[in-house]
Each structure stands twice: as structure tokens, then as C-alpha cells.
């Protein structure tokens, strides 16, 4: 067995996912527009990968200069503001409406599809699948207004929940909170679903790091058979469950896949154990980093009514977890044809 393999069918998959639409858009775009889209996507990817380390490096550097009072004052303020991310954060409509997000949307292109109403007098947990390499579809749809979430679901506020450790990084935490992100921790979810009023749509990428390693062009595999914590939280606070699927998320990059037991595989597993996420080795369409122009359609399914059970039993958790998996599979099958997938494509739940 070879140590690794590189999936190379991204271009063919992308062509099958709305190739006519993409070709038409390219003809209409000016060179200037294409340049802005490329720069915007690069900015997003590099900020995802390097902004955290850059913020830490900047603060450490300033501590060694005559400007050392600035980071000291910031660290003192951060300590007083430590719990803000778990208390709903500090979202900014200005940041969520940056023009750069619309350029990211147009690069692929991306769109958000509504299949049912979300009552603004209720709270929801939206399970988003698949994770992909960067979860760009989830970010664009729920942490920005580029895809028109507030227009589609008036009165409902989306909040993408991400790793809590990111909110401990100086400066980076301000950027994350401005986009409406919050930690995917129990105190954070409890606050959003019980102390922030109604009309909150808490978005959780259920598969997480394990699912990112399964991100392959043309593959539709989600990790959730043993992921039941989000269902328990939904029952505790009476939040309806909503399945969400981003078609095309896995087709943005070609990922290097290490065979199980190889050195690369062991390093990925070790990194995931320490950092709670696993680094992916991948290449894109150009310059290694540019994702393929694959249409990404994020479909929001119908809510699954969930009763409020402050102390849910395991049987109740298993029941609603089963209903959620059935609803997700149904959503996938109903919309796969309109999103460019053939009947042979099936959703695999592991």
C-alpha cells in the first residue's frame, strides 16, 4: 500500500457541478473583478491559516519594543473580557457586510437555499455538513451576509460556533467575534439558547476535524453516528434541529491522503489529539492555495421539532439523533440533482 495518494478529479467534479453557470459568469466578469475575487479568497484562506499565529507573533514582538505598554494594556483588558465570547460575543454588522465576502461568494460561486421557514420566536441548532478543508460554505453563509441569510430568514440571527481555543488568541478573538462566531462550548451554547432571547440559529459543523480528513472531491461522507452532544443540548433547551448540507464543499481542493498507520497519518492524529483539529495537506487550482471554481450550494433543511427536556434520557437523545440523520439523508437526496450530482451519489454517514 502506498504511503499517500493525491485525489485529482476535482476539475471534473467541478465541471459537473453547474459548469454552464460558472462558464457564463466567467464571460461576464472583468479582469478587475476576477482580480478582486482572487485576492479576497487568498485573504480569507491566509487569515484562516496564519492570522492567529501572526497576532501572537505581533504581540510578542511589541513586548520587546518601546511599545510594550500596548500589549500589556491589551492583555489586562482581555482578562477582564475573557468570558465575552461565551456570552454571545460581540458581532459587528459592519464586518459581516464587508465587500470582500461578496467577492469570495462570487469566486466559486456560492448560494444559500431556503427550504422552509425558521420561526423568529424559536431557537435552533443548525448542523452543517460536510466540514471540508476550510468550511468556507458555512462561514460565507452564516458568519457573513454575503449569501443573504438575514434576507432569507428575517428575525433570525446566525452564529457559527468554532473551536473555543481560538478565542484565547489576542486580537484574533476580536476578528472572530466581529463575524458573529462563538465558541462551541457548553456555556456558550447554553447562553445563546437560553439567555439571548429568541431567533438564534446556532450553527455547528458536526463532523469537525475527523470529517475534514475525509474531504475528497466527489465524496459525500459525514461523521456523526457517534456525535450526539448537539442533540442533547437541543433537548436541554428545546431548540429545534435543522440539517444543513453544503454541496461542493469537498470539491474545492485535492487533498493528500495518508494511508492508515503511515508516518503522515500518525502525525495528523497526534496533532488532532493535542490541538483538537487535524492539519490537511492539499493543493488547489492555482498557486497551490487557490480553490477550484466549484459552485457551492448550502441548503438549509426543515426544522425538526424538539421538546424541552432539562434532563434528557439516553433513549430521547438516540431517538432525535436518529430523526436528524434521517432528515439529513432525505435533504441530501432531494437536492443532489439540482446541485449537479447524479443519482449514483449517496450520502455516507459514519
From TrEMBL:
CDD domains: LPLAT_MGAT-like
Signal peptide, first to last residue: none
MF term (GO), any: diacylglycerol O-acyltransferase activity
Membrane topology classification: Multi-pass membrane protein
Transmembrane segments: 44-64
EC number of this enzyme: 2.3.1.-
Enzyme class: transferase
Name this polypeptide is given: Acyltransferase
Record's subcellular location: Endoplasmic reticulum membrane
Family: Belongs to the diacylglycerol acyltransferase family.
Domain of life per record: Eukaryota
Key words, A-Z: Acyltransferase, Endoplasmic reticulum, Lipid biosynthesis, Lipid metabolism, Membrane, Transferase, Transmembrane, Transmembrane helix
GO biological process: triglyceride biosynthetic process
Pfam family, one: DAGAT
GO cellular component terms, semicolon-separated: endoplasmic reticulum membrane
Keyword field contains Endoplasmic reticulum: yes
Amino acid at each position: 500500500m502506498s504511503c499517500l495518494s493525491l485525489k485529482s478529479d476535482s476539475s471534473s467534479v467541478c465541471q459537473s457541478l453547474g459548469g454552464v453557470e460558472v462558464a457564463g459568469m466567467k464571460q461576464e466578469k472583468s479582469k478587475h473583478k476576477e482580480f478582486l475575487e482572487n485576492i479576497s479568497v487568498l485573504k480569507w484562506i491566509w487569515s484562516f491559516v496564519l492570522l492567529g499565529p501572526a497576532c501572537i507573533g505581533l504581540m510578542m514582538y511589541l513586548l520587546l519594543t518601546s511599545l510594550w505598554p500596548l500589549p500589556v494594556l491589551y492583555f489586562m483588558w482581555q482578562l477582564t473580557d475573557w468570558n465575552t465570547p461565551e456570552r454571545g460575543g460581540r458581532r459587528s454588522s459592519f464586518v459581516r457586510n464587508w465587500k470582500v465576502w461578496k467577492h469570495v461568494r462570487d469566486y466559486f460561486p456560492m448560494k444559500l437555499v431556503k427550504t422552509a421557514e425558521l420561526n423568529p420566536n424559536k431557537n435552533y441548532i443548525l448542523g452543517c455538513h460536510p466540514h471540508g478543508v476550510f468550511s468556507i460554505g458555512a462561514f460565507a453563509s452564516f458568519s457573513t451576509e454575503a449569501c443573504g441569510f438575514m434576507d432569507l430568514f428575517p428575525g433570525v440571527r446566525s452564529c457559527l460556533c468554532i473551536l473555543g481555543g481560538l478565542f484565547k488568541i489576542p486580537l484574533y478573538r476580536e476578528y472572530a467575534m466581529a463575524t458573529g462566531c462563538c465558541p462551541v462550548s457548553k456555556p456558550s451554547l447554553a447562553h445563546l439558547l437560553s439567555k439571548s432571547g429568541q431567533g438564534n440559529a446556532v450553527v455547528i459543523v458536526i463532523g469537525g476535524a475527523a470529517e475534514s480528513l475525509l474531504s475528497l472531491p466527489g465524496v459525500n461522507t459525514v461523521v456523526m453516528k457517534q456525535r450526539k452532544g448537539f442533540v442533547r443540548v437541543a433537548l436541554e433547551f428545546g431548540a429545534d434541529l435543522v440539517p444543513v448540507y453544503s454541496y461542493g464543499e469537498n470539491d474545492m481542493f485535492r487533498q493528500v491522503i495518508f494511508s492508515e498507520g503511515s508516518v503522515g497519518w500518525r502525525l495528523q492524529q497526534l496533532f488532532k489529539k493535542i490541538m483538537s483539529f487535524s492539519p490537511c495537506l492539499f493543493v488547489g487550482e492555482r498557486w497551490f492555495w487557490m480553490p477550484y471554481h466549484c459552485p457551492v450550494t448550502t441548503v438549509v433543511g426543515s426544522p425538526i421539532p424538539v421538546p424541552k427536556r432539562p434532563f434528557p434520557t439516553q433513549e430521547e437523545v438516540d431517538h432525535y439523533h436518529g430523526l436528524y440523520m434521517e432528515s439529513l439523508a432525505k435533504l441530501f437526496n432531494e437536492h443532489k440533482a439540482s446541485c449537479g450530482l447524479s443519482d449514483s451519489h449517496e450520502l455516507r454517514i459514519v
